[in-house]
Amino acid sequence: MDLKQYKAAVEAMLFAHADPLPAARLAEVLQIEPDVVERLLYSLQDEYEKTEHGIALLQLEDRWQFASKKQCGDFVKKILDTRRNTPLSPAALEVLTIIAYNQPVSRSFIEQVRGIDSSSTVASLVEKGLVEEAGRLDLPGRPVSFRTTDVFLRTFGISGIAQLPPLHGDSHDMMLEEELPDGAVQQGMH
User: How far apart are the first and last CA of the chain?
Assistant: First the structure.
């Protein structure tokens, strides 16, 4: 196979698989070097960035996936199940924030932070595909833990959890640390 054929095969596999795939897995299937596949992926990404295309090739940390472009979002929303595209309630955003910044977390952790039963909210986020089960925690009762998904990353336009904005306390603490001379201790902190 030549590079054009490999590129077409990568495109077809990503399209058919639908879920994000790592370049290493694509290379394994094609029996070529991962760096060759990565060059092909970047080339495809450049091609799909052209305005005449309605889809884009996204890089989600170490995985790749096709997605519709933002300017086509209204059309895509109309064609898809509207139940999944309903706006998130304040409670759902709160639970999603707790999961995103502390993942993997158990339902009891979420409820402890919120001070209220959150089982229906967690179930709603799972149904929307924004969170998923992440296995069981090594705690008494072996509770199920939850984490965010690739749908979460796409929905919020980030490529990884590291791109989440800092929490208010984090940025405030960082600013205070930057203002203190070396060796100084914050008042109230030990």
Answer: 63
Q: What is the CATH number of domain 82-164?
A: 1.10.10.10
Contact, 156 vs 125, CB < 8 A? Answer: no
CA distance 159 to 163: 7
Tell me if 136 sits within 8 A of 153, measured CB to CB. no
| Distance between CA atoms of residues 41 and 109, nearest Å | 39
For the chain, give the number of residues: 190
Domain borders along the chain are 3-71, 82-164
Q: Which of 76, 79, 102, 97 is nearest to 152 (CA)?
A: 97
Q: Looking at the domain 3-71, which fold is it?
A: Arc Repressor Mutant, subunit A (1.10.10)
User: Do the Cβ atoms of 131 and 96 come closer than 8 Å?
Assistant: yes
Q: Which two tokens stand for residue 86?
A: 């309903």
pTM of the predicted model over 0.90: no
- Three-point CA angle 151, 60, 101, nearest 5°: 65
Could you read off the pLDDT tens digit of each residue along the chain, which spans 190 residues?
888 999 999 999 999 987 899 999 999 999 999 999 999 999 999 999 887 899 999 999 889 999 988 888 888 877 776 555 578 899 999 999 999 999 999 999 999 999 999 989 999 999 899 999 999 888 888 889 999 999 899 888 888 899 999 987 654 444 444 444 444 444 333 3
